[in-house]
Amino acid sequence: MHIAQGLMKVINVNKLTSSGCHVKIWIADWFAQLNHKLDGELKKIQVVGEYFIETWKAAGMKLDNVEFLWNSKEINSRADEYWPLVMNIGTQFKLPRVQRCLSNYGPFQS
GO: which molecular function terms (predicted)? Predict the structure, then answer.
């Protein structure tokens, strides 16, 4: 995440929480590992995730109605639901179809 994204996150989260919203921020540790960030070392990735949280706090994010969720923890807590769904999707869709769908979200890199 670059500085503008971090600061905009603080501004937008503070607007939401001051309006009474409860905000959940996902820390995508498994996705970072999947994309081989920080050499795919989960412990390093989680340390950086903690740094993000501390940086948002230092930038003034009000945490009264903010909850941080880690992909790895959340997926593992409902693994019996998550992994059958992944397998179901994986068996129903072929790679070319997935690539066509992903093009809606940005350039696909193989």
Answer: ATP binding; tyrosine-tRNA ligase activity
Q: Which residue type does 75 have?
A: I
Per-domain boundaries in the chain: 3-76, 78-110
What number of other Cβ atoms are within 10 A of residue 31's Cβ? 13
How do residues 8-65 score in pLDDT, each as one tens digit?
999 999 999 999 999 999 999 999 999 999 999 999 999 999 999 999 999 999 999 9
Separation CA 38–CA 105 (nearest Å): 23
- Tell me the pTM: 0.73
Is CATH 3.40.50.620 correct for 3-76?
yes
